[in-house]
Amino acid sequence: MTAIVDRRPVRAIQPLHAALLAATVPLFLGGLLSDIAYASTFQIQWSNFASWLIAGAMVFTGLALLWALVDLVRAGRHRQRALVYFLLLLATFALGFANALIHARDAWGTMPEGLVLSAIVTLLAVLATGTGFSSLRAAGLHSAGLHTGGLE
């Protein structure tokens, strides 16, 4: 049995970038759940909750988008992954902005477009977050020298 050591540097996501990115999912999900609650109860306060949660998610998405743009400019050989990540975040931001504008209407005017957009934006946020965190490659164990190879 031999030890395999991967000497390539691991390009992990920065902790602040990770926090900004990770905050988007629960906020957009909270907006979606608030929209679902409003659709089933017609209590106007649920629409207000959704509006505020989406506005908060847009702040974090915008900051993560700026960080992703910087990473895209600095990306070397992993430019394609950085581009996919940036485009997912850009789509999340654009549709999230449209969703925020729809939620700026009165509560009756947000349905059903607000609910549908909240579902789409939540899915995009999950995909963008998964893509962003996938830069933490599993080979990180290799560079620490912790992985041993099989029978050779």
Automatic annotation (TrEMBL):
Residues 14-130 form the DUF2231 domain. The keyword Transmembrane helix applies. The keyword Membrane applies. The chain crosses the membrane at residues 49-70, 82-102, 114-133. Keywords: Membrane, Transmembrane, Transmembrane helix. It holds the Pfam family DUF2231. This is DUF2231 domain-containing protein.
